[in-house]
Design goal:
Elements (H helix, E strand, L loop, with lengths): L9 H27 L4 H33 L1 H14 L1 H15 L8 E4 L2 E9 L2 E6 L2 E6 H7 L2 E2 L9 E6 L4 H9 L11 E5 L4 E6 L7 H10 L3 E3 L7
Antiparallel strand pairs: 1-2, 1-5, 2-3, 3-4, 6-8, 6-9, 7-8
Helix pairs in contact: 1-2, 2-3, 2-4
Length: about 240
């Protein structure tokens, strides 16, 4: 019996494309359902972050599989054809692959202030072949090849908040407290909060980073509103 996924025929290549196409939309459906079904916001964000990385890799891997399937139909003719296309389109291919790498790189993200050559501004969005940087003179497009050859500098901001520590005492479990924190947009979850139990005092040590423009007093007020005791030093919550 002929295997419909054998790739030495056009039918096999067609079936592979259909399989990858429906696989992509199956992942999109999973993403949609996770956004609509609330387990906990903390769990949802972690799962969506994983799915986002899968989507970043899914397209280039799918394209590579399709090209390999195309080559297996006729190794010589199709191989030479793709070699010619690759030589002509090399700058675009390099840009695209560079884009995938930079999107996975957690240092570069929307809202981050960067300097590339003589251009300084905040990253507005990522495109398939470059990024858009919002500068004082307006939006500026910079391709990934330029970033790769010239390098970039992530600028420190005057309002950057360092990792902070707060001691809390609450009848809530660690998991329940983390879920409560995830329900409020005070913390920066690129540097996720960490809770550690302190046996000597019965308190919890909370290490966190606040979102841009948020003051520590706002977090303390939020916790106090939920009957959670807070202190900057452990010995005050004995």
């Amino acid at each position: 019996m002929e295997n419909t996924f054998i790739l030495y025929s056009w039918i096999g290549l067609r079936n592979l494309i259909l399989f990858l196409f429906f696989g992509y939309w199956a992942l999109k459906l999973i993403e949609f359902l996770i956004q609509r079904i609330t387990l906990t916001k903390r769990v949802n964000k972690k799962v969506l972050a994983v799915l986002n990385k899968i989507f970043l890799l899914y397209n280039p891997i799918s394209i590579l599989l399709i090209l390999l399937g195309f080559i297996t139909i006729n190794y010589i003719v199709h191989g030479l054809f793709l070699l010619l296309v690759s030589a002509i389109g090399y700058p675009y291919i390099r840009n695209y692959v560079g884009g995938v790498i930079y999107k996975i790189n957690s240092i570069l993200a929307k809202g981050v202030s960067v300097t590339i050559n003589d251009t300084t501004g905040e990253i507005k969005k990522f495109l398939p072949f470059g990024i858009v940087v919002n500068t004082e003179k307006g939006d500026c497009f910079i391709n990934y090849t330029t970033i790769d050859t010239s390098g970039y500098t992530v600028n420190s901001k005057n309002d950057t908040v360092l990792r902070q520590t707060l001691f809390v005492k609450t009848p809530l479990s660690k998991s329940e407290l983390l879920d409560l924190l995830f329900d409020n947009p005070l913390l920066n979850y690129k540097e996720a909060p960490v809770l550690k139990e302190l046996e000597e005092s019965g308190a919890l040590k909370l290490q966190y980073t606040l979102e841009k423009g948020i003051q520590a007093e706002s977090l303390i007020a939020f916790l106090s509103a939920h009957q959670i005791e807070t202190s900057l030093t452990n010995n005050l919550i004995a």
